[in-house]
Amino acid sequence: MRAFAELLDRLVLTPQRNAKIRLLTDYFKATPDPDRGYALAAIAGTLDLKAVKPAILRELVMERMDEVLFRYSYDYVGDLAETISLVWEPAADARSPEYDLSLGGIIHRLQSVGRSEVRGLVRSLLDQMDSSSRYAFLKLVTGGLRIGVSARLAKQAVADVGGREIADVETLWHGLSPPYTQLFQWLEGKSEKPALTTPAVFHAVMLATPVGDNDLAGLDPADFAAEWKWDGIRVQLANLGGTRRLYSRSGDDISGAFPDILESADFEGVIDGELLVGGTSRTNRATRTFSDLQQRLNRKTVSSKMLEDYPAFVRGYDLLFSGATDIRADSYLARRQKLANLVEAASPAHFDLSPLVPFSSWEELDRLRSDPPDPVIEGIMLKRLDSPYTSGRAKGPWFKWKRNPYNIDAVLMYAQRGHGKRSSYYSDFTFGVWTEGDGKDMLVPVGKAYFGFTDAELEVLDRFVRNNTIERFGPVRSVRAEADFGFVVEVAFEGINRSGRHKSGVAMRFPRISRLRLDKLPRDADRLETLIAMIDGGKPV
Amino acid sequence: MKPDTLLFPTPKGLFCEVGQFYVDPVQPVERALITHGHADHARSGHTHVLATRETLDIMRIRYGEDFCESEQVASLGERLTINGATVSFHPAGHVLGSAQIAVEAQGTRIVVSGDYKRRRDPTCLPFEPVSCDVFITEATFGLPVFHHPDDRHEIAKLLTSLRQFPERAHLVGAYALGKAQRVIALLREAGHDAPIYIHGALVKLCDYYRTQGYDLGDLRPATIAGQDRQAFAGAVVIGPPSAFADKWARRFPDPVSIFASGWMLVRQRAKQRGVELPMIVSDHCDWAELTQTIREIAPSQVWVTHGREEALVRWCELQGIDARPLHLVGYDDEGE
Fold first, then answer.
1. Which residues pair with A122 in a beta bridge?
2. What parts of chain A have a pLDDT lower than 50?
3. In a designed cystine with A135, which of A85, A366, A461, B226 is the match (CB 3.0 to 4.6 A)?
4. Domains observed in chain B
5. Cα dihedral angle (B150, B151, B155, B157), rounded to 10 degrees?
6. CB proximity list for B60: less than 8 A, separation 6 or greater
7. In what order do the strands lie in the sheet with B68-73?
């Protein structure tokens, strides 16, 4: 348990992706089965544990502690699990401090305990752990690790244990369950590759590279098909051997949130497509925006009203399996023909085919890309007609050519120090635009960005922040931002949605600082009204 | 004599009227008794200063030769008379030279503990309990959440990280007086023999520790001049915490940001500061040590100075010990 607890403590404070992977890989290599597999499950969110209610934890701590002292402590720390882990005084007859429980043993006992015995078990386990382990344990049983590690990152670390590709792990993943003993045994070369128990597993998706400056010059338009790039989420829908699954691009199983899609997938095969909300082209109703789709995302269950108000459908891009046959080695054209046949026979309200965009030259395609016919289009996809379906992001077979981003000029308002390599730089910026408040113009924050600028530009930004700080709030500094003095930056972003969570009422997607506008004064920056006009696909200006 | 006429708080600090002196005054005074060399307790500009030899040396290093008009060395355990009061200095275990000051008059004894800790520190003498009527304690970590782990475990975390990330410089933020030398000494005890690079602000104090017989091993300046940036890869670099937000930190390859402080126990504190590897090493008592010390000394009253007074006062009440906060101003409650 200690090794797991220390791993969590490190991960939560480690900002760099590669450093996180190394911490995870080292842990997986050093920890025996089944503990490492349970740790993996806890991090990847596949561990099924009965939740312990915070009220029970509070009662347990109060058995031994003065309420006033607990309140002072909780006020100071601010997190219940952490407070309890720190204030817990082991009973006099508790185990010696050197004693270390196994993670697997703890999970086994939690899974087998009856409802009435939970309290006693939790008390006795807390007595047997050190503070860091208590924290990890309490986070585990209250259901929120929140350590900034995605399931995909954990899978990458697992793949690194055996020097394998992440695609191999992703394919096996949904056929395996905690504590993943077979998986680790295989990665360490101690056993055969695990056999897939369910055929409807996730297959790593094919990705496109962005069109660079001279990428298209030497290519013949006749070798490529063009499709619109739709602004939903990329999914893989599988129905094989009687099992139906819907996966996100990164291999998370999102079937639970989309029963409407699963139910209507009455064909056998594996489709690659875009998950969208609204009407299909076959029902002649409009495709709705990403903000509508967001209503359906990240839900464990979905109400019938939600299904009615936000109907989901899949716009087919590709076919990986036709029936039970793997056709990924076939050409794009051959796969697309089979996909078209499959979609034709499928439910019109839930499936349509991503239309081809006819074009004869790159210039023509460039014009189409810049002015697409539907606000839910975010660019063009180019696919070589003769390309097989290969996982990963190889350059050549598929390109993506995004429409131009939105741009606004905004004023720097706050800056925060970065992490890791950037820890001595103010590199995370909050910027704002003008709006009217209390009868005069004021700046309202509209977003945060911490990339887009070059290292040389970062030096300039950092110097401005250090020389023009007005106030400090912990690690955050507010900087001078007046109509005639301040720092204007051009912010590029992919889209903008309404948001009740932000004071400005808007939230940008993928904002980044695209240029420093040293030539502009804050008074020249954009107004909130301009941003609001961009919502729901208003054209980039 | 009633304790609160022997010693009482004033805007300049704790004042002893019969002795006509202040303990750790925050403004310049005629006569000052200083517990230890940290800047919020030891200030320059007093006329007469009485402190341990080490504390006087440290004040001279920090403030220059003219840090006061006249100084007097207090030997540990020796009883000195100042006007109508008798005083004596006793080790506090906080940093090199740190002392508790016992103030006595007309049969009443008050011990001003200054900052203190109870666990072993290879760079200073251990705390000595002194019986008294009133024990004045700090409460920097005066909340039941604070349980500082074993130092050796915290040092092991750093050594593990050095093995795991040998291409990265390991930047340890540690206060220049006490914490930095203690971390170095603990690293040496754990078998880390490699050169340790130190920030310019630490050089004089580390040199002083060496003259006092504390072996800190191979220390080198953390300057770029004349050496390859890569020399810092996999090395420990120690500097004052403030230097890490500064441009100074940019010279190191892909630094791991580390902070050696009792505050690092609370995860959100570490996160807010951008600390990647917290080392919970404190020169103050944790909750268990504060309460154990009060039990051991068994004073009839406890006065609580800076920190989280309310929780410690509450604990004393629950134990039936008369306690009150002193509300002294000017001491750095973040003093770590």
1. none
2. 539-541
3. A85
4. 3-145+284-325 (3.60.15.10), 151-279 (3.40.50.12650)
5. 30
6. B67
7. B8-10, B13-16, B21-23, B31-33, B46-51, B68-73
Domain A209-402: give its CATH code: 3.30.470.30
Position B331, amino acid = Y
Q: How far is CA A9 from the centre of its chain?
A: 21
Q: Give the tens place of pLDDT for each residue, B269-285.
A: 888 888 999 999 999 99
3-state SS, residue A2? helix
Identify the residue among B140, B145, B147 best suited for mutation to test binding to A, counting A beta carbons within 10 A and taking the highest: B145
Neighbours of A151 (CB within 10 A): 19
Are A162 and A186 spatial neighbours (Cβ–Cβ below 8 Å)? yes
Give the residue from B140, B141, B143, B308 with the most A CB atoms within 10 Å of its CB, the best one to mutate: B143
Q: Looking at the predicted complex, does its ipTM rise above 0.90? A: yes
Chain B environment of A418 (Cβ under 8 Å): 274
pLDDT in tens, B189-213: 999 999 999 999 999 999 999 999 9
In chain A, the residue whose alpha carbon lies closest to the alpha carbon of B142 is A73
Pairing of strands B322-325, A312-322: unpaired
Whole-Å CA distances, A201 to A120, A170, A175, A322, B12 = 40, 8, 6, 15, 74
Answering whether pTM is above 0.90, one says no
Torsion, Cα B304 B305 B311 B316, to 10 degrees, reads: -10
* Chain B nearest-CA residue for A419: B274
3-state SS, residue A309: helix
CATH architecture of A2-141: Orthogonal Bundle (1.10)
Classify burial at B106, counting beta carbons within 10 Å of its beta carbon; exposed 0-12, middle 13-18, buried 19 or more: exposed
Torsions phi, psi of B203, nearest 5? Answer: -60, -50
* Contact between chains at B244 and A423 (C-beta distance less than 8 A): yes
Q: For residue A409, give both structure tokens.
A: 């000029």
Distance, CA of B11 to CA of A540 (rounded, Å) = 63
Question: Residue A82 and residue B266: Cβ atoms within 8 Å?
Answer: yes
CB contact under 8 A, A15 and B144: no
Cβ–Cβ of A22/B165 closer than 8 Å? yes
**Residue pair B85/B104 in contact by the 8 Å Cβ criterion:** yes
Q: Quick one: CATH architecture of A406-537?
A: Beta Barrel (2.40)
The domain locations on chain A are 2-141, 209-402, 406-537
